[in-house]
Amino acid sequence: IITLLLLAAIMLLLAGWHRFALPRVEHDAGGHGRFMILKAFSDSVRAFVGKPHFWPAFLFMLLFRFPEAQLAKMAQPFMLRTVEEGGLGLTTLTVGYTYGTIGVIGLLAGGLLGGYLVSRNGLRRWWWPMIAAISVPDLVYVYLALAQPTNLLVVNSCVALEQFGYGLGFTAYSLFLVYFSKGEKSTSVFSICTAVQALGMMLPGMFAGKLADMFGFMWFFVIVVACCTVTFIVSALVSLPRDPGGSGQ
Known about the structure:
0% strand; mainly alpha
């Protein structure tokens, strides 16, 4: 309760700061009223669905993180559950440190490395290595569920590896959204892309807990790894731009 109240207080302070610090638009050149808002929204949706190769790109946005969405929902409950229940039996404090510190460091390191590699050689050069990077490390959870190690160094190393691969692979996903959004109403199209991205995380997470309860954690993580084939399939369907950036292109 104290933690949540503290977070709420921080959000209120930030909201107050933004109320005075952010610039304001005094006059909207596009007009006012509900009609203009609806027209702007419909124009943005029309620009979104009118993009070349729309359906492969849409499936990519929706299903790229299909396995990761399931894994993300159940990774921490898996660590908190007792060994008898198939988990690792870690404390809340330990799980918070593992994900909040070690995992974040791995995620940032993967994202930074991904950005650096793309800036040097372009997205086409690193597309499939990055797809593999977000998929293959999911195997560490199969190992954790089988071995149920008590050594925190082993657990933290596995989490760091999986999050590093996620950060590296997510670079490809994010940059594809940027390239797809270029052109008419790019900002609005990118916003719709992020909404589809959020939907792609929400829908698989809705049944992840049910799968874990039905099959147990070990087989659940095996199913997650098998679902990585979906990531490879939708990644093969999309059309990458000819010159996606990078000095190597």
